[in-house]
Amino acid sequence: MTVTTTASAGPRDDREPAPATPPSPRKGRRPGRALPYLLLLPALLLEILVHLLPIVIGVAMSFRELTQFSLRDWGAAPWRGLDNFRLVVDLDAPAGQALLRSFVTTCLFTVASVGLCWLLGTAAAVCLQDTFRGRGLLRALFLVPYALPVYTAVITWSFMFQRDNGLVNYVLHDQLGLLDSPSFWLIGDNSFWALLTVSVWKGWPFAFLVVMAGLQNVDREMYEAAALDGAGRWQQLRRITLPSLRPVSQVLVLVLFLWTFNDFNTPFVLFGKAAPEAADLVSIHIYQSSFATWNFGAGSAMSVLLLLFLLLVTGVYLFLTSRERRVSRG
Amino acid sequence: MADPSRYPPPSRAVRSVRSVRSPMAPPRSFLWSRRIFLTLLSAFVLLPVYVMASSSLKPLQDVSGKFRWLPSGLTVRPYLDIWETVPLAHYFVNSLIVAGAATVCSVVIAVFAAYAVSRYRFRGKRLFTVTVLSTQMFPGILFLLPLFLLFVNIGNATGVALFGSRGGLILTYLTFSLPFSVWMLIGYFESVPRELDEAALVDGCGPLRALLRVVVPAAVPGIVAVAVYAFMTAWGEVLFASVMTDETTRTLAVGLQGYSTQNDVYWNQIMAASLVVSVPVVAGFLLLQRYLVAGLTAGAVK
Q1: What ipTM does the predicted assembly reach?
Q2: pLDDT band for position B299 (50/70/90)?
Q3: Which of A139, A280, B32, B165 is deepest in the core (most CB within 10 A)?
Q4: How far is B279 from chain A (nearest CA, A)?
Q5: Interface check A16 vs B, CB under 8 A
Q6: Interior/surface letters B32-41, b for 16+ CB within 10 angstroms, e for the rest
Q7: Domain limits at B95?
């Protein structure tokens, strides 16, 4: 793979048209044409080694019958064509039903989590737009969940969600009397809400950070002009702030969607190796079914389907948002 | 609460309007909504932080029985025990090596790549940026197993042990932060005037010296932001750490689970260990967060 890349980069240099700026006679300008490729080379090689090549292997694996025995020599594993795919999308079989349920759960979870993260992040960033006493402190505080390593944050939440010694049941049952009896939060249907809470707690500061950065690019004179024209604070928010944030929000929502949909760390640390059905996100589902049944071919098939779905959603999203931008500009 | 002085000094006409009745002052409804919202949000954010800090100072019976807001007695015992229950110091050193090396490599590689993209026109440039960025959306689970196999095969073929070693984990982690780092640095380098490095080139600097002497110093906030991001990514990753490490190379992400596999779950020790593990990252992040905001403003948010 290494050789192919360098080789394909090589001949391209020769065909490269001369740069627009006249080449200076000085030494050091001569290797100029190969230079960008040399600078890119380390990044390119690593991306190929750790991302692209494994994905090609993953796709190849999804067409084969792979068990723990054939795994080491996966290239020699028997070819099964689309059998793995048929198995995992067969809605009459338990495997297909489980995947569909996990997929629906993940979609609901992602929509709820991304929506709440965006809402909290935008609201907080707008609230901290003015200067007031304590603003710097709040800003630092709000970034703490983002800065905490995922596992320490999630472990703390799992302690809070414990049935017998956790804070959540103590507050809801013992102190407020909202629950008749202490509930289980990390098994059963409640686990969806536990997972959502942790995900939003961990995820909204990123939205806050990005929207805060986006707000710095909003022209302040617009607010002054609007204020002089008699626009109130709420009107300024609706007519200036939110429309100016639109492009930033569009990118932000896409990034949050991809991260949340693929999230593995949060459910893995929160529930351990056996996630409850109500919070069985696709990543966890694939991981579990690969290692529980040792059917790595089916696991790879599910991963490939997941990737295709994400590609489709991203493509449609980018198409819609870029068209909207073109329409609004024209 | 609101301070109108954040605006640049207004022109005389505006000032005379403002002296009558400040039109910039937010109305009461806005101020109160803001206060209530910020208070609730702070409570939500602080709750786990408080639980982590207070539980780490509680005796074991406090965290095994019903939850208590205040400890029955303060003890630093958990902070002494965490080092004994699991080899925490060992995991700490592993995490430090892995995250540190991944950060340094990722930043250096991203600086070169971003410089090439922002300063040169070349064939395949768009393909490169799109490909690198699109790796962000690949589900980690898709390439977990292939990468594992690849590392094992490379190990068998060349004798370079990537699987189970810190080197393999460093390679993996640095590519995790690479796409975002390249993307952000491209934006940041674009904001450094071209005239600066062109002047350096005219003065006889080679392109690399122009990059290191002129562009990099001007882009320090962006580079710091990228470094913070890369370090946090590597420090917090769980999935690959749990598959790609063995007992000697285990990182904190996996090692911390050691406290709950015993018969008793030592929640006070878990909280103490979590706090000890979090403090360096959070402190570093909060010290450098303004760079991250500046870096995002210049780079990503365009």
Answers
A1: 0.83
A2: low
A3: A280
A4: 8
A5: yes
A6: ebbeeebeeb
A7: 81-298
